[in-house]
Amino acid sequence: MTTSGRSPASSGEQPASSTPLVARMQGFGTTIFAEMSALALATGSINLGQGFPDTDGPEDLLVDAISAIRAGQNQYPPGLGILELREAIADHHRRCYGLAYDPASEVLVTAGATEAVAAAVLALADRDDEIVMFEPYYDSYAAAIALAGARRRVVTLRRVPNARADGWSFDPGELYAAVTDRTKAVLLNTPHNPTGKVFGAAELEVVAGLARQHDLYVIADEVYEHLVFDGRRHIPIASLPGMRERTIMIGSAGKSFSVTGWKIGWVAAPPELTKAVRTVKQFLTYVNGAPFQPAIARALAAQPPHHEAVRQRLQAQRDQLCAGLAELGFDVVRPEGTYFATVDLHRDAVEFCRELPGTAGVVAIPSSVFYDSKAGDTYVRFAFCKRPEVIGEALDRLKGVSP
Ligand code: PMP
Ligand code: GLN
């Protein structure tokens, strides 16, 4: 377990004296995703770094958004988000997970999951409070916690190869040891970026047991809820006994509908928690994405066929990338969900990723940026949310690279 920040998922650190930036945000620099996408453009590399699909969302969804713009849905929507979308989110949660949320008081539309996570952390954590989370972790978590003046307590997910499948696991003892009398919440991401791990029922019960025992909130980032493979099911932690009342469940249209630039996310939680998140959220962005909201509402109502198509496409792309990398001699950890696969280089991955655009014309992310500890120093994250021909070309280019 680690209790402080070694290297946030960012670059461009400046000495304190030369920057107007508040001390708690120094060291965050530019996000690794922006940096790597710029590098891909500058070098003409294939971008297997930033996790965004290189195909558009469903045609109906795009047409609905255009129609909403033409129909004049271009002014501020209501603070909670339009009712049609809140109803569609509540319907989705009932249909997919048997979880009932009241669209009037228990659902809130946000500017992507990023704002939902930030608003939840800022709403729950005071200065010097603590949030427990797993590493590797999505980069915005550390920044949101730092903005709150709070601290992160990090428990490491470790690779556990076994005969049936390769995967990632944690030590429940380490998780319990991370809790102190300042702990306010557990920030849980499943399906998990960057490992591709989908937390199973028994693991979720460990986290839930901890939350119940110590009366903690759970901020559940479930943006990849529909991107799970091989017949697996995503289990929302809110569906476990005693968890709905303490969980802020977060989703996003970006991942579920392949429109990451639209930034429509949402929160579902009991009224008091929703109100707390909304109180912060209204002073971050107030509202966003007026014409996108009705389009996403309609897409959510019609979603099963779309989600099935995306799942199948991504699973095939995962298979293509993982098989190709393994053939090239890389030690691949096959993901259970998400957009991302990990390889273990068994040597320093930062150096490898820095050289890769020049040597092969491919961009990937060194997973160490998602860690506080050194546990991820040899891992590289490759995104497979790209067209098969793009993955094929990337694999061709990687032929000359020794793992
Ligand atoms: N959480 C995780 C785990 C992510 O990978 C991402 C990025 N795609 C986000 C949150 C941010 O989602 P959004 O684009 O909806 O803000
Ligand atoms: N979530 C995406 C990833 O992990 C990137 C989002 C971003 O650029 N902030 O690659």
Order of helices and strands: EEHEHHEHEHEEEHEHEEHEHHHEEHEEEH
Radius of gyration from CA coordinates: 20 Å
Q: Total strand count, please?
A: 17
Low-confidence spans: 1-7
CATH homologous superfamily designation of the largest domain = Type I PLP-dependent aspartate aminotransferase-like (Major domain)
- Number of DSSP helices? 13
Give helix % range: 25-40%
Give a verbal description of the structure:
The protein is α/β, with parallel strands linked by helices and 403 residues long. The protein folds into two domains: 10-57 and 305-400, Aspartate Aminotransferase, domain 1 (Alpha-Beta Complex), CATH 3.90.1150.10; 63-303, Type I PLP-dependent aspartate aminotransferase-like (Major domain) (Aspartate Aminotransferase, domain 2). The chain is built from 13 helices and 17 strands. It has a seven-stranded mixed β-sheet, with helices on both faces. A four-stranded antiparallel β-sheet has the order 13-14-17-16. The chain has a two-stranded antiparallel sheet with strand order 1-2. Helix 3 (83-97) runs parallel beside helix 10 (292-301). 51% of the residues are buried. The model is unreliable at 1-7 (pLDDT under 50). 4'-deoxy-4'-aminopyridoxal-5'-phosphate (PMP) binds at residues 51, 112-114, 138, 189, 193, 221, 223, 252, 254, 260, 263, 265. Glutamine (GLN) is lined by residues 31, 33, 50-51, 193.
